[in-house]
Amino acid sequence: MNLTQSDFAPSHRQSARPAAALGRPPSRLLAWLLPLLALLLALAWHPARAAEITVSQASIEHSDEGYRLSVSYDFDLNRGLEDALSRGVPLYFTTDVQLTRRRWYWFDESSVSATRTVRLSYNVLTRQYHTAISGQLQQSFTNLDDALTLIRRPPRWLIADNNTLKTGDNYNVGLRMRLDVAQLPKPFQVNALNNSDWRLSSDWIEFTYKPE
Questions:
Q1: What is the DSSP code (8-state) at residue 46?
Q2: SS3 for 108?
Q3: Among 64, 94, 126, 190, which one is least packed by beta carbons within 10 Å?
Q4: pTM of the complete model
Q5: Are 16 and 162 spatial neighbours (Cβ–Cβ below 8 Å)?
Q6: Whole-angstrom Cα distance, residue 158 to residue 4?
Q7: Residue pLDDT, tens place only, 119-171
Q8: Main-chain dihedrals φ then ψ at residue 129, nearest 5 degrees
Q9: Rounded to 5 degrees, what angle do the CA atoms 40, 44, 45 make?
Q10: Residue 35 has pLDDT above 60, yes or no
């Protein structure tokens, strides 16, 4: 068999494939990769933090009916909570309050222990937000910020009648508000417990109250 120089020359069709494979990525691929890389770097340098609730004001007022708690909060919903709300998942905000009286001869006496929950929901059909305080006082709103105002500045809450507290004694008041994931529908509870977006709570704050 006689071989000529043309038999050893590389084929133009065969050499074209490696050249294309080693060339630059298509512009569409770069347009997709670069934002993804930027997002990964942002998450690496700025890990997600759970949102916090701040108690901006708290006091106890005496009225004819008894002792009422006046409180206001400062917080916003993160994107994960807003998305869940818009998809029909209700959010429950629970306030816990405790009043204890110090006794020198024994453990502190627990005089008041109470909770109140505000339910926030969204109706996809009517495009309205609804709030309900402990299942009783219900209101509707056309936008989220107005609905959150009721949670940030709830109406005064009767926590004890006139015979519960002793005039002239000092009481230590403990207060906090939290997003109550235990009241979510069962399928959402496991995900909420493992998702930092749902860790929304205030610290316990304390102040002293003396009935007069």
A1: S
A2: coil
A3: 64
A4: 0.72
A5: no
A6: 104
A7: 999 999 999 999 999 867 789 999 999 999 999 999 999 999 999 999 999 99
A8: -100, 145
A9: 120
A10: no
